UniProtKB/TrEMBL annotation:
Protein name: ABC multidrug transporter atrC like protein
Transmembrane segments: 36-57
GO biological process: oligopeptide export from mitochondrion
UniProt GO molecular function: ABC-type oligopeptide transporter activity; ATP binding; ATP hydrolysis activity
UniProt organism field: Verticillium longisporum (Verticillium dahliae var. longisporum)
Amino acid sequence: MFSAEYTIIYLGFGLAFWQGTQMLSRGEISSSGEIFTVLLSVVIAAISLTTLAPYSIDFSRAASAAAKLFSLMDRKSAINPFDKSGEEPAETVGLVEIENVTFAYPTRPSTTVLDNFTLRVPAGKVTALVGQSGSGKSTIVGLLERWYNPKSGTIKLDGRPIETLNLNWLRKNVRLVQQEPVLFQGSVFDNIKHGLVGTQWENAPVEEQRKLVQEAAKMAFAHDFVSELPNGYDTQIGQRGGLLSGGQKQRVAIARSVVSQPKVLLLDEATSALDPHAESIVQQALDKASVGRTTIVIAHKLATIRKADNIVVMTKGRIVEQGTHEALIANDDVYANLVKIQNLAVTDTDSTSDTEIDEAKASKEGT
């Protein structure tokens, strides 16, 4: 590519010189100085082109990336995130009801993720979802947050269909803690305070916001380590929280989720990426944050959900069985076999893999 560009440039030199001599011989120009003026202009243009030439590929890539970005920005969401309509109940207790919900992702309309799914999550209780990858656990989180609307069926919060609720109000009262927390470049205070956006405390005095942030940090077991940072809550944590450890980032994310005092807390594999020590601390923080809230936990590690009020075992978008840990063990079905496999194979991690779930089902079918 570059050789072609340089060839064109030097051919331009030759063409300009040849044309100049022809015009001089015909008397169309008065002196050879005019030829050199043109040649100098060509040289300057050539230097500019040779400087830009190495970046031509980058220009092409940038144009392609910009086109994709503008296309994404112009795309209209089926759920308008800026919609201000809908109910904003003065009080909520956190009763979640999923009734006959069927769902498939827009990019895979032929693949049913949830199939006529029904589940009641009592207010103030902990409900755990267990199942292999692709069974629909995280999809339930997305539907509760209204990232998508179900194909059919209804999801209710305190008896009200969530599509009739104000979207900002819904997401303020239904908070999510994910496996990989997303933190922003700024201070610890700024990151936790972000959870107040859309609440009555968003424009509160800074002193009141700091009090709320510290209370949330204490609940998330983050206050002690934050206080030991060079500038406390005003310490900069770097891009994506890179100056904090994994456990510290997760605790800041938990504090951000509970600072708005939500009634429903969603925990999507919140401890699975942490080392055992950090996992223990974060699990204590999650247990404390769950008190008095409707909590839905997605977990592969059975040790983290043994105390749940209800454990729901899922496969292919359906509920296989549900109950307390003790009841499911006594039932001696899929969950009981999972516990046996984990105790034998990975007692120290209690992680539930797809293979283990398949083995559990096969074990039960063989008996």
